[in-house]
Input
Amino acid sequence: MYNIEDFSQFRRQSQKGILVIYINILYKVLKAFWFLLFLFIQKFSKIPEGKLVYIYIGVAALLMFFLIRAFLIFKNFQFKIAHNHFILKKGILKKTNTSIPFDRVQNINFKQNIIQQIIDVHEVNIETAGSSKAEISIKALSYKEASALKQAITVLDNNSSATSSIETVEKPLLKVGFFALIKVSLTENHLQSLLLLLAVLVGFFQQINDLLDRLGKQDILDNYITKNTSSLENNVLLIVGFLILLSVTAVLSSLVRVMLRHFNLTVFVKNSALEIYQGLITKKSVILKKDKVQHITISHNPIKKKLGISFITFKQAISGKVKKKKDKIIKIVGCKLIQVSAIKDLLFPDENFDDLAQNFSDSYFRTRLYFRCFLVLIIINIGLYLGFGNSSIFWINSLLIPIFMGAIELSFKKRYYFFNTDVLIVGSGTIETHKTYLPFFKVQNVELKQTLFQAQKNVADIVFQTASGKIKIPCIHIEKAKQIYNYTLFKIETSQKLWM
Amino acid sequence: MTDSFQNIPVTSFPDITKIEFKSIHKRYLKVLLINVFLVFLVVFPVLFFVDKKGLFELSRNSIWVYLALFLVFIAVLSIKTIGFKKRKYAIREKDVSYKNGVFFRSLTTVPFNRIQHIEIDQGPISRFFGLASLSVFTAGDSSDDLKISGLLKEDAQQIKEFISNKIDV
Output
């Protein structure tokens, strides 16, 4: 039908795309109205025969309507490549015409959810740093078409490196196998996983509560909960059991989370870009262009350090008011030291960070942390006292204060910064250790902040605003801060390189 | 490459502290004060209404609540007046800077070659005094990176022109 390599004429996606779009619409509708379906099933027996026919016809008409809609979306979705621009026409009634110059393209990602895996098509997402309207998602392309499109966009963008891109089967820079991934997931921050799980459960619980409320069966759940909590209070064994259950759930949820996201994680280096493949149910492939990365953070925690693995977070430019910030943060896990330094070499070639002395924050930073913790402690105490109305609850401080103090000392010790001519490195973390690499010329603007108390101590905070968030060095001596401030401005203003 | 930084005398970089900062226009103080008045012009009647209706049972202590609000009013007025003198801006060959704050001092600099777009806007009160504010935006999620309020309309226009020319080059 179409020549696979030819994108100069307007063309549609693979015809299987209708199915993908159709299922996508159905999924969205179901997600929004699933309780209606539930109600319907509940009341199914009470509906008289005669009316049932109308309902069937109504549902069939709706399904038909969605199918036609999916077909029209497919029919009107056309794209081509011309003059180094990707051009897209879409819309059934409201027609939109989008054109994206190649050098604005940040990422070309492949994605496959279960349906796309079954019918063997790939979803291609073209990400830009511009407005979120310019994000393009082509739902269904065959693998050949998808990679041809990717090739067309990336090669034309990088003419210089195109010559060196002789297709060879390269050895992956990083491949994390099943067992390595288990090792990674067991050493995750389980508390965080648990909180994430709880957040999901709370949302789910509320939905069920809503539903039962509608059915007038609120009492059932309430009774169930009160019965269980009252027995909880009486039984220490149950509490211990509950705690064990909680920790097992936490570990399991991190296991599942890591497996789902990072299964079969493979990283290639191609044309000064990183290609990352990962995912179990939804397979994702991301191309990370070297120039588009704003800053990276290399992190590990004590256990991971023992095992010699760390994870790297890549931050790219985010546009105006994007809700889905998460998509722009790319994380790869289970990196060994060699791989970390390989990635560092790729992103910051010819840089040497080894013999640079670390500079630490002024001790005022510790004072400030103590002061803030003190305020938090007071709030916790008041809250607990009001909640329990029992003064013996203050004993909890004997547990909280050492934890807080330990955390403060750790985060003070882990706060440091140093820099060479081009790159600033900031360390942070409490239990985890993070090390952020920020090239000076990627900074968007700088801010020097000082409270009256800081002014008395001659210290100031310095905040670097980048296209992907803020990086802060707290409480350093004002003279040093000013030097860094001036130097950063000098670096930005004399830089000829594109920050994106 | 690494060592070269140590060899560069830092004093040779343009120093942000050595430049002359300009104050914003005096009339802007009036705009600030009028804004504060307007807010309290709304808050006082609301408090009066609550008091008369006895909504929160504060009739016994009502005199103290009025007094507290009045003190807050005076405090805000004086902070705005003191803070007004601290609002300063500077425009150099390659960047624009703004500093403000009494308790929380801050100094921000945006280099021209990182600016995405510039905006001039005028509130109704500012328009009456012939003033405007200039906002400068860079990439990223920060809503507005640098905003200089209380410039004369013509000055704001001129600065915008100047920066726009610099960006296009």
